[in-house]
Write a structure and sequence with these properties.
Layout lengths: L14 H10 L16 E4 L8 E4 L14 H22 L10 E4 L13 E3 L3 E4 L1 H9 L4 H9 L7 H14 L2 H5 L5 H8 L3 H10 L10 H7 L4 H13 L1 H13 L1 H11 L4 H10 L11 H14 L2 H4 L6 H11 L6 H16 L13 H19 L6 H13 L13
Parallel strand pairs: 2-3, 3-5
Antiparallel strand pairs: 1-2, 4-5
Helix pairs in contact: 1-3, 2-4, 4-5, 5-11, 11-12, 11-13, 13-17, 14-16, 14-17, 16-17, 18-19
Length: about 425
């Protein structure tokens, strides 16, 4: 598999031209009298077999798109991108089922189904993407957003583990995505592959961006030249991480509900990636810790058992909190030693003597509550007037597949 960046990019674009185009394609507020069901549509066969995909541009006239664009041309270009994306996804992950993309919506407005800060959003058998995001994705990101959202269509549940798996696709195509999305990967990269990774992050994000542009900061950082030797080294390390990325994919599909719950309970976005690393990689020794090892494990255990994030709506990263306590309470100043303790803890907590992973949940009642809340969220989304019938049917299908409250996905073959 090639790690060449932006292999599916369209014609590159300068910073000034990109800024101008984004400015006139920024998502807008919902127009008065706007009907999200009115707009050009076209049925396109993306898969050789299976159902066709409905491409649509709701509000094409209401938002003035017709002044500069022909709808058929925009839809044909989007369909072409998606064909390439589906082929690319199959090349990277041939064992995945075909993505059930029944609908592709180019959305010029913001709302509950596509927030102002979102490039794109996968709902149920559908992808929603803004015109500005299409410009950035096709001219800068090499269609990484299309790939990211397409993978979401194949995932069985909701949660941060899905984002981790999808960003795992993106880092394979360009190592700059590893830097931009570092919270998902940095501890494993630092602990096992590149101890200097934190310094690389500092250098990357220390570069000044312009506030007078409509271009998001992360896009500006992506476009700026960066140390090619470092990027090449990162690309090699990403290849070496392929077994870990594959294990994340496997775990997220074997334990979709537990993975989603633990992501919310711990707020550790990298958790599944770190567990996979603890399973597959040789861990550093801890002989120098002696009796302190037990105290450190107790601190980690206490943090990972806390339920404030799910019960009280807190947003505390329990991994970061535990590592901070190790630093200031136990006076463990060496960051590599702190990470070594963390990965040993993960192996002790989640990986059995047979080497198999079990995603341990500390409170079954809290898991039941989490499942029910997700069902309520999906039901609430279905009531949106902007929800299409395709999305509504996809949401119903998800609710049917979610196990009954109290039944974990580990015991449910669905």
């Amino acid at each position: 598999m090639s790690l060449a960046p932006n292999v599916f990019s369209e014609e590159k674009i300068g910073l000034g031209e990109l800024d101008r185009l984004i400015k006139i394609h920024t998502p807008q507020k919902i127009a008065e009298g706007f009907d999200s069901k009115i707009g050009p549509t076209k049925s396109v066969q993306l898969h050789p077999q299976g159902e066709p995909t409905i491409f649509s541009i709701p509000g094409f006239k209401a938002y003035g798109c017709d002044k500069c664009h022909q709808p058929d041309e925009l839809i044909d270009r989007s369909a072409n991108r998606m064909r390439k994306t589906l082929k690319r996804l199959h090349t990277i992950s041939p064992d995945l089922p075909p993505a059930p993309i029944k609908q592709f919506i180019i959305q010029s407005w913001t709302g509950e189904l596509l927030q102002p800060w979102q490039f794109a959003h996968t709902t149920f058998d559908s992808v929603r993407i803004s015109p500005a995001a299409i410009l950035i994705d096709s001219r800068v990101y090499g269609n990484a957003t299309h790939l990211h959202e397409t993978l979401h269509l194949t995932q069985p549940f909701l949660g941060s583990a899905n984002e981790l798996e999808a960003y795992g696709l993106n880092i394979r195509s360009d190592p700059k995505f590893l830097i931009l999305n570092f919270p998902y990967f940095s501890d494993t990269v630092t602990g096992f592959f590149m101890p200097e990774f934190p310094e690389i992050l500092d250098r990357f994000f220390a570069r000044s961006t312009r506030d007078d542009l409509n271009i998001p900061k992360e896009v500006q950082w992506f476009l700026m030249p960066f140390d090619e030797e470092i990027l090449a080294k990162l690309a090699v390390q990403i290849k070496d991480m392929e077994p870990i990325l594959k294990e994340v994919e496997r775990l997220n599909r074997q334990f979709p509900i537990e993975a989603a719950y633990l992501g919310e309970q711990t707020r550790a976005m990298s958790l599944l990636f770190d567990i996979a690393a603890a399973k597959l990689l040789p861990l550093p020794g801890l002989r120098e810790m002696g009796s302190e090892r037990k105290e450190a494990f107790s601190i980690l255990e206490q943090q990972f058992n806390k339920l404030d994030n799910t019960r009280l709506g807190y947003r505390v990263d329990r991994k970061r909190e535990a590592l901070m306590i190790l630093t200031y309470k136990m006076k463990i100043k060496d960051p590599q030693l702190r990470l070594a303790l963390y990965f040993h803890f993960l192996k002790h907590r989640y990986i059995g003597s047979d080497g198999e992973v079990t995603l341990k949940v500390s409170d079954e009642e809290d898991l039941k509550k989490f499942i029910e809340e997700k069902r309520v969220e999906v039901t609430r989304m279905m009531k949106s007037k902007n929800f299409t019938e395709i999305e509504r049917q996809g949401a119903k299908k998800l609710l049917e597949l979610v196990p009954a409250v109290g039944q974990s996905s580990a015991s449910n073959p669905e």
